[in-house]
Amino acid sequence: MTDPRSDDGVRALPTVMGLALALTVALCWPMHDAGAIVIETVPRKPPDEQLQAAGTQVISDLAKMDFDRALESANKMIQQNPGEPAAYNLQGGAYLGKKDYIRARKSFEKALSLDSDNSEALLYLAQLDVAQNALASAQKRYQGMLAKDPKNIDAMVGMARMEGRAKNEKSELAWLEKAKAAHPNAAAPRVFLGDYYLRTNNRPKALAELTDAVQLDGENPDALDALGQAQLLDGQKSQAVLTYQKLAAVRPQSPVAHYRLASAKINAGDLPGAEESLRRALQINPDYLEVAFVLAALEVRLGRHEEALKVAKQIETAMPKSPAGYVLEGDVLNAQERYADAVKAYERAYDIQQTGPLAIKLHAAKMKAGVTNEADTTLQKWLRINPNDIGGRLYLADENARAGRNKLAIEQYQMILKSDPKNVLALNNLANLYQAEKDARARDVAEQAYKLMPSSPMIADTLGWILVEEGKTARGLQLLQEAAAKDPQNPELRYHVAAALARSGDKAKARKELETLLAGDQKFPQREAAQTLLKQL
């Protein structure tokens, strides 16, 4: 972001063109893992009044995420002003929104061919280079900008982003600190520093930098968005709501801003307020599927299934060639336990587009509707056509194991491990099944899983219990105690500890563990076995 304040401290107002590109990227361009953080630029030459008026329409379209209309408006600008770089920059911004990065690059290159010093085109070409891992090209562009202006904040932040992409965290931090020192009154370096500290798990520093950024520029959407995310991560729910209310006020035509506010309200327990914000987001952009799904889920949670179905029907009408509306309809009907109707909805979606997750949904709905054979036939057909669908195979294996079809489950897990030998979940579940079937391979498979993920209480419990059942009580008990310490609310892990203590001869500790475990009315698969063991002690 160009320094938002002039030398006398008065906030500089960005022009229409700069805002348009910044808004496009803010809405759709993933700058960092922690969120969409952007560099907002101000064009070197402000456009004339006619171009400014045309650009206003593009800004409105971009804010509503109506990228097709934004592109149409930008193309008209080019027809009327074929020699104006700003028009091509706006065209590139619309292509970014459509995630058409090839055409976006061509648009920015055209702008640069018309004006070799065009800062917006240079900046966004560099960002495209970074996103597509062409780091050498990005570095060259940023270095060119810094050669002309050693304090160019966009280039310094861009260099930091490039270093971050290359996992050079020290260099990334150094560039951000340099940008902050060169522009002490600018919000942008602090926004990126906040993002950096969030990604490196330093939440206090992230909150400090982002709070400073908002104090410097209370209308900076990137600063507000990043601060809201940091506050939610830190459990500051009410503060996050206030922050996102400011964001929605700054960007009233941004469906993303209202969606962020809705998410914060859900976290804070304000479900009616969240519904209002979600509906506002959909009013701005009726095709915002993520919002529609959240709204429908919220309606289901509030017990308003018919309202949720209305949302699904709206999507079906607006996007008849998309499976999304029918998937949502199936989800709502499933929540109502109208399984036969849910099957019909999922089948319509599956006819439009066959995917692994949808095949799983269809199978689950058919099982609940009582058409077991048909359910298995559908999923098995999908897996024959898509043998490398790990998610589908894991689901089928789990279903077989849950139904007591251990040999069929074992076959699926073995197939998964042939294509993905380090799949920890498959290894762990296979070890459990081998143990249930008295297969001597159980411990070796469990050891493989533990070696890959020793921090997992579930995996440590599997190996520990197998060792205990094999008579290797000392090491087994140690692993079980470590697992229970990491997940103390898991009754199954605590039962295993008690049983291992009993086998080791420490009846007093085993009795104490069981009494604590059985004190409440918590249900778990081994509750009856725990009661029997306590009586024996």
Question: What does this 3D model show about the protein?
Answer:
The longest helix is centred in the first third of the chain and has 15 residues. Helices cover 74% and strands 0% of the residues. The N terminus is likely disordered. Among the domains are: 186 residues, Alpha Horseshoe (Serine Threonine Protein Phosphatase 5, Tetratricopeptide repeat); 65 residues, Tetratricopeptide repeat domain (Serine Threonine Protein Phosphatase 5, Tetratricopeptide repeat, Alpha Horseshoe), CATH 1.25.40; 84 residues, Tetratricopeptide repeat domain (Serine Threonine Protein Phosphatase 5, Tetratricopeptide repeat, Alpha Horseshoe). It has 537 residues and is mainly alpha-helical. The protein starts with 15 loop residues before the first helix and ends with a helix.
Let me know the average pLDDT. 86
By CATH, the superfamily of one domain comes out as: Tetratricopeptide repeat domain
Compressed to H and E, one letter per element, the order equals HHHHHHHHHHHHHHHHHHHHHHHHHHHHHH
Structural class: mainly alpha
Per the CATH scheme, the topology name of one domain is Serine Threonine Protein Phosphatase 5, Tetratricopeptide repeat
The CATH architecture of one domain would be Alpha Horseshoe
Largest sheet: none
Task: From the alpha carbons, calculate the radius of gyration and give it in angstroms.
Answer: 28 Å
Q: Return the CATH class of one domain.
A: Mainly Alpha
Q: Outline the low-pLDDT stretches.
A: 1-46
Number of helices: 30
Give helix % range: over 70%
Instruction: Please indicate the percent range of residues in DSSP E strands (runs of 2 or more).
Output: under 5%
Distance between the termini: 70 Å
Apparent shape: globular
Number of strands: 0
